[in-house]
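Sequence in, structure out. Go.
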Amino acid sequence: MKNTEPGSQLRPAPSRNTWSRSQMGRFLERIEARTGRHFGDYEEAWAWSVENLEDFWAEVWDHFEIITHAPYSSVLAERTMPGATWFDGARINYTEHILRSLARRPDATMVKSRSQTNGSFDWTGARLTEEVERIQQGLLRHGIKAGDRVAGYLPNIPQTLASYLAVTGLGAIWCCVPPEMGVKGVLGRIGQLEPRLLISIDGYRWGDKPIAKLDDLAAIRSGLPGMDTVLLPYLDTDIEVDSAAPGAESYADFTAERAEVTCLPVPFEHPLTVLFSSGTTGTPKAIVHSHGGLLLEHHKAMGLHFDLSEADTAYWFSTTGWMVWTLGVSSLLVGATVVLQDGDPNWPSLDGPWSQWAVMAETEATYMGTGSAYMAACAHAGVQPGKIWDLSRLREIQCSGSPLAADVAGWVYDAIAPEIMLAPTSGGTDICAAFLGGSPLSAVHAGEMACRPLGVAVDAWDREGNPLHGEPGELVATLPMPSMPAFFWNDPESERYRSSYFNAFEGVWRHGDWLVRTERDTWVITGRSDATLNRGGVRLGTAEFYAMLEGHPGVNDALVMHFEQGGAMGQLVLLVEAGQDADTAALERSIRTALRTQLSPRHVPDHVLFVRSIPRTRTGKRLEIPLKRLVQGGSAGVIDTGVLVNPQDLDETVQSVSRILARG
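Output:
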């Protein structure tokens, strides 16, 4: 992998006279025609969208023909946060819009499922609609009604997608946790909601390893004794449900009846789904997202920023507990086909038949949504996707979960396709959307995010609330977004909600990331603001460490923490997961030299510690803050090990860091 200079242009912005080639361009040209405005470039269009926030969202509503069963009285009552009221008076339903798209393409393949447990199969629009119809009849027999909670303990398969739509069509509230999560993690999430019904599988395969979940299911049911259960045989399709899960209903019986889907019109802010924060810093936040919020934000994202349409097949690699899964489902809003992959994409190897690239080639995907960590792993392993597989249909890659290093961005254009659209993105479970990302009208620069999405008023502020350029500031949103949480569950006075986002600046959302605005009006996340390293009064962002170390020979992964004890400078600890058979002494010397010469002497750690694995969540997030708290004596509950990739290595890592700090 060759070195790519951060900020170097990898793909130019299209010329202004070619805007009509994209849906976003045509959308903006229609606004120009109606308003008499002229947008010279994307930044001018973005400025109009936030200065005229109400007009912009009304245009989105009309453009995507939002179905409402009652008129709205105002787009946005007041520009206040928290508590903004959007499209007051409207009565809508998210699922109704998905079903509209399916009805337009009943015979077209709309879902392509690829599973290491039950193989490959496709569903047409009519087949997915039928599954929604059948599940909804099962829900009604269990007495599920608007406002009730239904939980899934399910992988990324079509039945999960259909369950989500069936539940929310009734005005009930969906939540899902992936089956790789253990009992404690499940109960700590869905237990907050007191669900009326749980739909679960019996187990799954991860690579060639069968993983049974019936014992975990029994413990979950014991912890939630008033909950009904439906069991979907997945690992063992011949299982006897009565003996495997006494008292549970079989999925076959649950879906035995069929009738037309009900789509209950609900207010804009009515709860649609609950997404859970990672739980790495305490009890997971149960973040409630609304029908209107996700309907509008996701129409904008899919149809404008991602340029998806009925001509596309969208591949999203995600666990069902990640916000990317919920976002990916919304590809159906604009008529795109979705690819669902369940299993280990690294089995038997990064360039094997189950790699994300292989599945995309086989399903003829045109759009990819994946994690930046996966991209980095492929780049550093020297994988050449464009040479191994036919990815000629793939036109865009969106990656998130962590910053994408410049070298990895350069690898995309060398190893996949020179004309591809690359869109590193930063958003979050909190908004189930993007704060920063790409657009069809913006250039691509290595190691940077191209733009602020339309209608999203994001900036980088200092502690006094002044905009910053060229240096890290707090990522803030200064105007409301439709998909900001409706509320947190079990937070009746909104105390936790306010303290999570509004405790730094009055009426302004502070997200907790350090953000840099470049001279090109592009954007770089340099790390979590609460994970910033303070060396003798100088703030160091974690992202610059990782950008350098991710391409360093012999380094598989790394994590950096700063501890205040140990003199004025404190102690900087670098954890390194070394490559196989690495000479760790030589590797440490080369790391220290690289940090000193490529960054600064302040970046050179006091301690370099080689560990078995770096603590990461399954969505790729490094856990700097929770790990630091554990080392400093925090309780074991600081980290929910159910979210970790390698939980068995955590205790040894904590003990090793504690020992080197004690030595000083």
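Check: The CA atoms of residues 32 and 38 lie 6 Å apart. The chain has a mean pLDDT of 93.
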